[in-house]
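Fill-in record for Diguanylate cyclase.
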Amino acid sequence: MVPASLAATLCLICGLWVTSYVGSLVDSSDSARARNTLQRQVLEAEARLQGRVREIMSLGQGLEAYLAVDPEIDRARFETFTERLLQGHDEILSLHLSRGARVAFSYPRGAEPFVLGENLDANPDMYVTLEAARESSRSFLSDARELRSGDRGIMVEVPIHLPLGQSVAARRDRVEGTSVFWGLASFLVDESQLFQTLQLSVEPDTHVLRVERADTPPRPLEEDFPGDMKLATEVARISVSLPTLAPWDIVMYRLRPDAGQIPVGAMMAHFFGIAATLLISVLSFFLVHEVFQVRGLALHDTLTGLANRRLLEERINQLSRMVEREGRGYDLFYLDLDGFKPINDTYGHEIGDLVLREVARRLSVEIRNSDTAARIGGDEFVILTCNRMEDEARLMFVERLRSAIRAPIAAGAGSLSVDVSIGMSRYPEDGLTAQEILRSADQAMYLRKGEKSRPRPKPTSPTSRGRGGSTLSATALQPVKVGVPSEKPSC
């Protein structure tokens, strides 16, 4: 289960990373496409934008010409003239007229961003603008403004310079020294309405356009917009040529939705990416689990769950290489059940299988985690220890195994018991390969059976080494007591 869980976790982590990476690639592609679209639109609309701004500036020049005739204008005449002046210009939100540095008139009354009677010299945002208006009669755009209504406006500033004791013709000729600064006409233009007029458009739910000075520092990006949207990341910034005090850009921002307002496309992309990742992780879990299960079936006995001959030989060879480097040996015990065949013949294979499973369980209890218990035949078992025991400890261990196996086994309403013959072999004295070590222990086990006077054909002598394993006689085991301490030596 652990390898399968690890594989599934790795697939999940990799899948989420791939989903995030692909999402960033899609996001970059979308940003590049939006930048190219905006650049094309701005190039097409730049001339229209310049023309629209100049048209608004010409309105200010018309007001300037009217003031040259009526420099002592009052509120009523201002409002009447301004109402006619702004007809057909829905993008203009308001007009403020300052006489000197003080706001004298506004249309409509009370409109943003200035207050009647306000001293613009005391306004930090207007001081530079007012100084530029005093020094030159050239119209220009000043900074964009955030309004209390939630709209955003662009200020088109038209300095008012009236002729000094000369005709309007002299005023138009701008003869040096013939005009004096009278005040400032400030047109507040709705930014979004201006973009619509210029046919500059973006997806309103995901992007927004802004006109900003090129030297504007990065904004905090926490301004509220309709639909609980907030400015998020800058996508594109395109320079435009406008009559301004400093270079201006048209900037596109991508909107960041609040919780619950993620765009459907992005939400679906992440949903399918995460779903695919989870699916792959689950499939990986089951695949690796099945692989290890199949491998386990190939290396373990299906009846008892112990190691089979193939896995036992692999561990013998592996242990042989390890102990050879460390200069020590190990022990192998070959067990054959006595009296098992009559049980199988009398009670059937079902009871026989129960006996084998119980013997396997008891052997597993008697060994350490580092040792190996294997079933290599019908009623034949092998115990492989990872180190060499002293002779006395080895005899005690064999007696523990025999006592565990001899204990009655519950079978239905009654109980059964079997005996066991045990042969032993040692590495490297009794063999250097797995086959030799097993053959030596098998020979020793048959000798033990012979000592019990149970005739059974003996196997042929080993041809490769000609060695026999150790035999345990009944006499040798007489002094050993059952229930010896179960402390087991470590590898």
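KEY FINDING: The chain is about 45% helix and 25% strand.
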